[in-house]
């Protein structure tokens, strides 16, 4: 059992305080957390205060494992003050990002005394979600470089992201909308990482279905499994499946 805000809750081994709080409907803000990715603890906005049963003080709840007898507060005066400072720093890094502005409003913060810091990518808050997503799909096309205010996310040596497969996972997880891809003709451009990739088109209708290197990667992963990789678009795939089902199900009288 752990205690959150004076109430006891059951917790399973291996869970974090954030997971228990979410399951029990207790609000803890997050920015660098994603259920599909390993926790990293970079934004610290999920901070809670441990008051007993563990090392006392402020700590990130997304990386804090539960332990029997742990007592935490998610909305103490210290927690609120800490989150307000953090969101002021984030406002300096990403003043136009809706996710940051909404969070600032929720935390009662309207402006920031800090100057724009760090990352050269517009609105990047260095949460690292894009880096972890890229690692998890096995591309390793981007990573963190430099320290302190020069820290940023970049392809190796700041050059074109040669290892980018065009899966666009980084774009999907980026909370600030910093990561951008655009399509033009038969090319997919990873604008943020200076990547340029060939687009695969549906052989039936010609709709774009994804980037060439991604198909190659998926084929490689499914090699020897007997699973075929089709490059039909979702609509043509459904039509094909419907045709196959009809052929099996509709028996001639
Ligand atoms: S580009 Fe987006 S996902 Fe990547 S570190 Fe910056 S804010 Fe996070
Ligand atoms: S959500 Fe926990 S440190 Fe970012």
Task: Explain what this protein looks like in three dimensions.
Keywords: 4Fe-4S, Iron, Iron-sulfur, Metal-binding. Residues 115-145, 155-184 form the 4Fe-4S ferredoxin-type domain. Pfam families: Fer2_4 (PF13510), Fer4_21 (PF14697). Ferredoxins are iron-sulfur proteins that transfer electrons in a wide variety of metabolic reactions. One of its GO terms (molecular function) is 4 iron, 4 sulfur cluster binding. This protein is of the alpha+beta class and 253 residues long. It folds into two domains: 2-107, Ubiquitin-like (UB roll); 129-243, no CATH class. It is 29% helix and 17% strand. The protein is built from seven helices and eleven strands. It has helices spanning 17-23, 77-93, 98-106, 129-136, 169-173, 212-222, 234-249, and strands spanning 2-4, 7-9, 47-52, 57-60, 71-73, 143-145, 152-154, 181-184, 187-190, 195-201, 208-211. It has a five-stranded mixed sheet with strand order 2-1-5-3-4, covered by helices on one side. A four-stranded antiparallel sheet has the order 8-9-10-11. A two-stranded antiparallel sheet has the order 6-7. α2 runs antiparallel to α3 (98-106). The longest helix is centred in the middle third of the chain and has 17 residues, at 77-93. It is globular, with a radius of gyration of 23 Å. The model has no long low-confidence stretch (mean pLDDT 91). Bound molecules: iron/sulfur cluster (SF4) and FE2/S2 (inorganic) cluster. Residues 30-33, 41-46, 60, 62 line the site of FE2/S2 (inorganic) cluster.
